[in-house]
Write a structure and sequence with these properties.
Layout (H helix, E strand, L loop, with lengths): L22 E4 L2 E4 L13 H8 L4 E2 L1 E6 L6 E6 L2 E5 L4 E7 L5 H5 L4 E5 L5 H8 L11 E3 L5 E3 L4 E13 L2 E13 L7 E3 L2 E3 L6
Antiparallel strand pairs: 1-2, 3-13, 4-5, 4-8, 6-7, 7-12, 8-11, 9-10, 11-12, 13-14
């Protein structure tokens, strides 16, 4: 998913534990440090950054709209989505500079966030693909803002982009919520350590 608007943080697959000498003492307890995260020039190594941040579990959303030029549905997948403020109601997500989907989505007056369900991994992959018809074979209905609400999504959020902040190789998009509602029932699609899964509720 490295080509879509908000790249999922994918660890490099390393599952090894730190060796005994790779430990530090904190508050009297030995803490594993893992391999060095810095390159010889002092900068963080990108694969190590992805590996560590990949341990932060996130939900996954699809951001949809209707292309302002041809009226066709467009969208992208993201796991960098969060609520920001209750008053005013704001949400945010991150978009890669290299995204070819975001300019089409951004051109719409209203964009819609679809919270994906645990059985929508294939939908996520389709929305994350570069090029082609991302909505081929997908069922959807229109939100009040007119954008696609994907069949099976847990919730939808209509919003309008308020600000875009440059941040490294991404743009942080802040959007004001106009309308929102729950949709289908089920558990969330969860992304963790490079893979997808669901949420198991306690018995």
């Amino acid at each position: 998913m490295s080509t879509h608007a908000a790249r999922l943080i994918a660890p490099d697959g390393c599952r090894g534990l730190p060796t005994p000498h790779q430990r530090r003492i904190r508050n009297g307890a030995a803490m594993p440090t893992g391999p060095s995260s810095h390159s010889p020039n002092g900068h963080l190594e990108s694969h190590r950054f992805r590996q560590v941040l990949g341990r932060f579990a996130t939900g996954v959303v699809a951001i949809t709209a209707l292309d302002a030029e041809d009226g066709r549905p467009c969208g992208l997948a993201a796991n960098s989505f969060t609520s920001v403020s209750l008053d005013p109601p704001l949400v945010a997500f991150c978009v890669a500079h290299t995204s070819t989907s975001w300019p089409r989505v951004r051109g719409a007056k209203v964009v819609t966030v679809n919270v994906l369900a645990e059985n929508q991994q294939a939908v996520c992959a389709q929305m994350a693909a570069k090029g082609g018809d991302k909505f081929a074979g997908l069922e959807w209905t229109g939100s009040p803002g007119g954008n696609p609400v994907l069949e099976g999504a847990l919730a939808w959020i209509d919003c309008v982009v308020e600000n875009e902040h440059l941040a490294g190789d991404h743009v942080i998009v802040v959007a004001r919520v106009l309308q929102l509602d729950t949709y289908a029932d089920g558990g969330p699609l969860v992304f963790f350590r490079g893979g997808y899964g669901g949420f198991v509720e306690p018995a």
